[in-house]
Design the sequence.
């Protein structure tokens, strides 16, 4: 479980957990944020399982963003008893700053879910 979490956080291949899933590891270049090789360079895992596969990652991104936003707002409520505008804007600013990472980690979570169920259901 810890290895899976580590490979998700470090954006590694869901099968071998060694090769990068994205061609450009930089999170700053927004034009290349979605560029991925078709297959893993280490284990030949298919990264484009079907056309439009990463459409589902949008829902993962939405859920991830909601969880982090409500966690931050919950912390503010626990600390101060209310949510200040500064806290809210800082949270939104941080989420915008880390947008590229959320985009990529959502894709990695999505393909990890697909690989997990593919391996465990088909081998029954
Ligand atoms: Zn691999």
Sequence:
């Amino acid at each position: 479980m810890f290895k899976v979490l580590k490979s998700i956080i470090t954006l590694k291949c869901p099968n071998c957990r060694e090769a990068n899933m994205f061609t450009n590891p930089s999170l700053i270049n927004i034009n290349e944020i979605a560029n991925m090789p078709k297959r893993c360079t280490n284990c030949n895992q298919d990264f484009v399982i079907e056309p439009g596969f990463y459409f589902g990652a949008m829902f993962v991104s939405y859920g991830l963003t909601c969880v982090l936003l409500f966690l931050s707002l919950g912390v503010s409520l626990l600390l101060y008893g209310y949510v200040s505008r500064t806290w809210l804007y800082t949270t939104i600013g941080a989420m915008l700053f880390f947008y590229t990472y959320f985009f990529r980690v959502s894709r990695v979570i999505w393909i990890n879910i697909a690989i997990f169920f593919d391996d465990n259901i088909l081998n029954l």
About this structure: The mean pLDDT is 91. The chain has four helices and no strands. Residues 13, 15-16, 19, 40, 42-43, 45 surround zinc ion (CB under 6 Å). The CA atoms of residues 14 and 111 lie 7 Å apart.
